[in-house]
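Model it.
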Amino acid sequence: MNKGFGYPASIVAQMLAQGEIATKGLLSPTVDIPAEKIMEELSNRGIKIICEEQILG
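Modeled.
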């Protein structure tokens, strides 16, 4: 669980420090943080996230 919490927090902190996220104040992870970049960086650290979509009905 440490990697599941620590890695994303570290990635976002690095993105803030490098100016990749310019928004100030309280940020929404679903709106203000680029998900593609987070997924790419997690993959670089050996964490793979698989998303599946299924239409019911």
